[in-house]
């Protein structure tokens, strides 16, 4: 699977206009504002031969135990969401700037 993902990404990168489009989207996000994660989700190291990990899948949970936990967590979540700011997650903007700078050169 990982090898197939790498091959598809390589083919897409060689398609005319793809790199220019991604660079323009990165520029748009950095100048006009937006989320970097809308442009990219991660990087593939060409030397490791392994694709980046997919989103973690939580282990199966006992349905009865989960229901009991959900009742108490819902009350706590409602109280805490008002005070918390949304934290940006995703690719590091500094590393992204370095990598996009190298590609645009």
Structure description:
This protein is mainly α and 105 residues long. The chain has a domain of 69 residues. Helices cover 54% and strands 0% of the residues. It has four helices and no strands. The longest helix has 18 residues. About 6% of the residues have low confidence. One of its GO terms (biological process) is DNA-templated transcription initiation. It comes from uncultured Pseudomonas sp. This is RNA polymerase sigma factor.
The amount of beta strand, in percent, is: under 5%
- Indicate the multimeric state: single chain
Rg over alpha carbons: 20 Å
Low-confidence stretches: 79-84
Quick one: biggest sheet? none
Helix percent reads 40-55%
Shape: globular
Order of helices and strands: HHHH
Terminus-to-terminus distance: 31 Å
Secondary structure: number of strands: 0
Average pLDDT score: 73
Number of helices: 4
Protein name: RNA polymerase sigma factor
GO molecular function, one term: DNA binding
Pfam families: Sigma70_ner
GO biological process, one term: DNA-templated transcription initiation
């Amino acid at each position: 699977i990982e090898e197939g993902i790498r091959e598809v990404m390589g083919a897409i990168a060689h398609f005319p206009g793809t790199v220019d489009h991604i660079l323009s989207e990165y520029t748009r996000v950095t100048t006009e504002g937006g989320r970097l994660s809308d442009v990219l989700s991660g990087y593939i190291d060409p030397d490791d031969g392994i694709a980046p990990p997919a989103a973690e899948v939580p282990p199966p949970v006992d349905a009865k135990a989960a229901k009991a936990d959900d009742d108490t967590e819902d009350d706590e979540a409602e109280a805490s969401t008002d005070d918390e700011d949304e934290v940006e997650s995703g690719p590091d903007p500094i590393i992204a700037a370095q990598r996009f700078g190298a590609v645009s050169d």
